[in-house]
Give the backbone structure.
Amino acid sequence: MKVTILITALAGFACGTLGPSIAAAQSLCGAREAVVDMLGSRYGETVRSVGLAGRDRIVEVFASEDTGSWTIVVTDTAGVTCLVASGQHYEQVAAGPEGAPL
């Protein structure tokens, strides 16, 4: 349930239906290579999962097992990557039976 809500919220944000558009969040955006380098060097985060949002945006989750930090980013077709959310206490969980609560 929690995962479904998060995915729905992210999809809405990435598609521009929730919150400000990604283009409006210029201070949270940059070239993908620069953002990925910063997440790796500053926080030790690497990409953990990836998905497609609509036809023109890629959503990625970066995380560090060492520090527990995590970041969700969205990249458009021009290669502009924007930070969507970040936090602490990242934990990779194994998929349970369908419909089972987290």
Summary: The first strand starts at residue 29 and ends at 31.
